Amino acid sequence: MQRSDLYGVMGEFGTPEELLQAVKKIRQAGYRRLDAYAPFPIEGLSDALGLKRNLVPAITLLGGLAGGIGGFGLQYWAAAITYPLNIGGRPLNSWPAFIPVTFELTILGASFAAVFGMLALNRLPHPHHPVFNVARFTHASSDRFFVCIEANDPNFHVEKCARLLQEVHAHHITEVSNE
Amino acid sequence: MAAQEYQAPESVSRLQQRAYFVGGIALLVSMFGAVRAPELFFPSYLMSFLLILGLTVGSLGLLMLQHLTSGHWGIIIRRPLESATRALPLMVITFLPIAIFGMKYLYMGQGEHKGWLNAPASGEGALSDFQKTYLTTSGFYTRAVIYFVIWLGLMFIFNVSSKQQDANPQDRALRFRLKMLAGPGIILYVFVMTFASIDWAMSLSPHWASTIYGFLFVAGQLISSMSLMIAVVVLLARTEPFASVLQKRHLHDLGKLLLAFVMLWAYFDFSQLLIIWSGNQPEEISFYRTRLYSGWGVVAVIVLVFHFFVPFFLLLSQDVKRNAKVLPRIAIWLIFMRLVDLFWMTRPEFTSRAMPTWLDVVLPLALGGLWLGFFAFNLKQCPLLPLGDPELAEAIEHHEH
């Protein structure tokens, strides 16, 4: 039986290649609830983890559209509806003059949506996480690579996971507690 | 990997034959127009010439850009780019009809609007003092020779060095030298194209000037050249050896660059409109007075929607950029839209009727066909990949999915 305070089992690796191989083998063994931790982006790791496409592109597009439409709308509303001024005989809806601001606000809206959308989808900021309970995990931001099989995986079994991690040559295998 | 394994497949030979066939027939048909209606023939010819010039020197620009910046995308398309630059001799030949027969139909103006060839010496419509010394027949010829010499020189340098690289694999010093030459080369390309576009297209209306005009051509040429490259690599990837070389990540990169060039072009085009529109000066606004109203206004909207908005929104999607069926279609569409844009840029100086003539169909087919045939011929002369490039192995390495 499992302990209820267990978050998962973690294995440590020395190189990104080892991590990539390990993640693939763990996925092959049927585990789906796992995550990998590395100090820098590793090409192919998202694919190996089987991460699905996320919503960030769609959120970014919506943010961009909102920024653009809002930017143009604000200028149109100010210049043509609420405060119409004749400037050099130009039409009130001087759309070419509105484009630079519309363009800038499109970018602003899209970038904000991308950054904050990403943070929200990642549930960040997230000051504490069970993996921080492993002392060696500080190396995840410098020179070590970690994979953690999480206890909420339907196939999770502490000894089996530990053995699997041994088979894929993890250097240190640790149980991660929730507390 | 041996050089003979990377020879162009049969499809390139078929492309060459078909392109020569279509181009040859269209050229014969267009001769009829050249004799019967030279005043219609030459505006069409200029537009078609500018399109294939874009494919050629645009590729020269892209070739230098990829030498300068590195990147796997550049290695995949380097040989097609080099083949496109080696079409420059054809550009010299196709320029001759303009230089010998066409100038009096192109640069004499229409009706009371005189061109620079027949501008009155004084009074209304006279050229400025500088223009009188610059826009002359001998100046036009001299500068054309200079442009072609510079382009041919750049073409020669980069093609010969690339051959040397095949013979001396892994030569890092050669790789570095190419990089060092590419930077100044790009500056030269932009300068020469600015002057050439002024001579050949902007001087159609000698009293109107725009400082961003050359950049409009440069950005447009990058679009047409990148579009051609996308279509070519997808065609090559239908058969070995390219089928196992081209990956989705390469298409993705090429698609991203195409999107960037489309945005760059739109940015330049809009900058010109915004500045002239805001200034509202009689001598500047004439360009848009003729191009944004009545029939030409319809063409302007077509260019805005189908040269910018539609490709822009399609190319935003990652799935589209990685799709080997959709991406080349957008690319070929953009080459067609380049032609429409050149039509909109040049033709209003000749007629207020915003309708293409039969020559506008036949001549792009003629020059485009001959160009494509020659390009395909060039493509068969070298291995399809730069086999000696130190970065090749990494560029075609397969990442597991």
Q: How would you portray this structure in words?
A:
The complex is a heterodimer of chains A (179) and B (401). Chain A has five helices and four strands, in the order βαβαααβαβ. With 179 residues, chain A is α+β, with helices and mostly antiparallel strands. Chain A folds into two domains: 6-53 and 125-177, no CATH class; 56-121, no CATH class. The model of chain A has no long low-confidence stretch (mean pLDDT 90). Chain B is an all-alpha fold and 401 residues long. Chain B has one domain (13-396). Chain B starts with 9 loop residues before the first helix and ends in a 5-residue tail after the last helix. The mean pLDDT of chain B is 93. Chain A binds chain B through residues 43-44, 47-48, 57, 61, 88, 90, 96-97, 99-100, and chain B through 270, 273-274, 277-278, 280, 316, 318, 399-401.
The H/E string of chain A reads: EHEHHHEHE
Instruction: List SSEs of chain B in N-to-C order.
Output: HHHHEEHHHHHHHHHHH
Determine the oligomeric state from the structure: heterodimer
- How many structurally independent domains of chain A? 2
Care to count the β-strands of chain B?
2
Please work out how many helical segments of chain A DSSP would assign. 5
Number of domains of chain B: 1
Mean pLDDT of chain B: 93
Describe the largest sheet of chain B: 2 strands, antiparallel
Helix percentage of chain B: over 70%
Widest β-sheet, arrangement of strands of chain B: 1-2
Report the structural category of chain A: alpha+beta
Mean pLDDT rating of chain A? 90
The span between the termini of chain A is 18 Å
User: Hey, roughly how much beta strand do the residues of chain B contain?
Assistant: under 5%
Compact summary:
The complex is a heterodimer of chains A (179) and B (401). Chain A is α+β, with helices and mostly antiparallel strands and 179 residues long. Chain A is built from five helices and four strands; from the N terminus they run βαβαααβαβ.
